[in-house]
Amino acid sequence: MAFITLNKEKLRYNYEQLQQLFKRNNIEWSVVAKMLCGNEKYLKEIINLGVKQICDSRLQNLEMIKKINPNIETIYIKPPAKGNVVRIVEAADISFNTEYETIKLLSLTAKELGKVHKIVVMIELGELREGVMGDQFVDFYSKIFKLPNIEVVGLGTNLTCMYGVLPNQDKLVQLCLYKQLVESKFNRKIPYVSGGTSVTIPLITKGILPKGINHFRVGETLYFGTDVYHNKVFDFMHNDVFKLCAEIIELTEKPMVPTGEFGVNLTGDTPTFDQSNLGNKSYRAIVDVGLLDIEVDHLDPIDKSMEIAGASSDMIVIDLGVNEQKLKVGDLIEFKVDYMGLLRLMNSNYVDKKFEEEIKVFQLAHQN
Where are the transmembrane segments (predicted)? Predict the structure, then answer.
């Protein structure tokens, strides 16, 4: 079997590091939970950290959060589909919006359900994903302020996720100025300027985050300790909260170079091999996880003496060299995964989800 493990202590440590950082800078923040893919076990652990607000881009996941704890404030962090407005008003306390006609439907639905639905309007700042254009946002606000059962609680922006456009002082100052303009023109208070995500955290540590940015949405840095801006790990955080464990289902000494006439493999490639390895052998372990669950580019064996030799839909082959560890069939190989790798694994129904302390239970059961 293959399974993901979550280390509770390291997760809590990362959370507390971020909590202290944001508190020192008078910033509110939400945990982005979309990577957990609605897994009840892991979501409960996030909620146990003491979070008050959780973001997600999947309605099923928000519904799971509300099932676990209805008091958690939930945020739907992509423009809603019109066909989902009823579920959004029921499962999300706040939604991020860019389309007036959709907000009208949210207004009608909230009125029918006897609720007030809160919205954050996303502003385009160069990433060219979701966002109202700057020359249209005043007119946009003038219309949505007239809608019943809608409370405008903020404006925000998204950067980096699609094209890698980095946040900087100029862009975030611009976002703060938009907020000031709306408040001045319409005599309305806008509580949130949600201009921060994991990639924006280094602007805090450098002391260059505009004071008006008062709300962050953080996922990757919480789970991986990542300084996304510089593509490295913060030295005060853990980057191994999660790991993949996969059981060896075959272990045999085999030639290092395949033989026969070559065509294309499962992914449409024709691999090449170092011909100097002809005649050489190594121990090859097959583990029970494959390309259906994760792409190998997002996966690294924790033991650096091992190397991924190849993969197919349901199996990955690991070159163990001379197998100094004396591994055998039934043993586990542990892997470090990155953000996209973990997202794929969490979305796989074929990979179990455990806490790290459960590894010992697995190993004892195997020994017996």
Answer: none
Take residue 144 and report the two structure tokens written for it: 């949505």
Distance CA 5, CA 23 (A): 29
If you search the block for the tokens 């611009």, which residue do you land on? 174
Give yes or no: residues 315 and 202 share one domain: no
pLDDT band at 117 (very low <50, low <70, confident <90, very high): very high
Based on the fold, state whether residues 217 and 101 are members of the same structural domain. yes
The boundaries of the domain holding residue 302 are: 242-260+274-367
* pLDDT at residue 261, rounded to an integer: 72
For residue 355, the SS3 value is: strand
Q: What own/partner pairs with CB < 8 Å and gap ≥ 24 does 206-213 have?
A: 208/169, 209/25, 209/172, 210/169, 210/172, 210/173, 210/175, 210/176, 211/176, 212/172, 212/173, 212/175, 212/176, 212/179, 212/180, 213/27, 213/172, 213/175, 213/176
For 45-78, what is each residue's pLDDT tens digit? Answer: 999 999 999 999 999 999 999 999 999 999 999 9
Is 3 part of any domain?
A: no
Q: How much is the mean pLDDT over the chain?
A: 94
Q: How many domains does the chain have?
A: 2
pTM: 0.92
User: Which of 34, 118, 171, 179 is labelled catalytic?
Assistant: 34
Residue 1 belongs to a domain: no
Would you state the structure tokens that stand for residue 211, as one six-digit string? 């004071």
Active site residue 34: yes
Instruction: Supply 37's token pair.
Output: 């893919």
Please state, as a whole number, how many other Cβ atoms lie within 10 Å of the Cβ of residue 161. 13
Question: What is the pLDDT at residue 256?
Answer: 76
The mean pLDDT of 90-106, rounded to a whole number, is 98
**CATH number assigned to the domain comprising residue 219:** 3.20.20.10
DSSP 135-199: TTHHHHHHHHTTSTTEEEEEEE---STTT-PPP-HHHHHHHHHHHHHHHHHHT----EEEEEEGG
Average of pLDDT values for 347-354? Answer: 96
CA–CA distance, 344 with 224 (Å, rounded to integer): 15
In the numeric block, the tokens 């459960």 are attached to 358
Q: Are residues 190 and 321 in the same domain?
A: no
Q: Report in angstroms the alpha-carbon separations of 1 from 46, 229, 351.
A: 25, 36, 8
